[in-house]
Amino acid sequence: MDERRSFHTYRSHPWHGLAVGPRPPRVLNAYIEITPFDLVKYELDKDTGFMAVDRPQLTSSLPPTLYGFVPRTYCGAHVSKLMPGATKGDGDPLDICVLSERPITRCDILMHVNVVGGLPMLDGGEADDKIIAVLNKDALWGKVDDIADIPKTLVDRLRHYFCSYKAVIGSTPDVEVGEAYGRVHAERVIAAAMQDYEENFGKPED
Question: Which end of the chain is more exposed for a tag (fewer CB within 10 A), N or C?
Answer without folding.
Answer: N
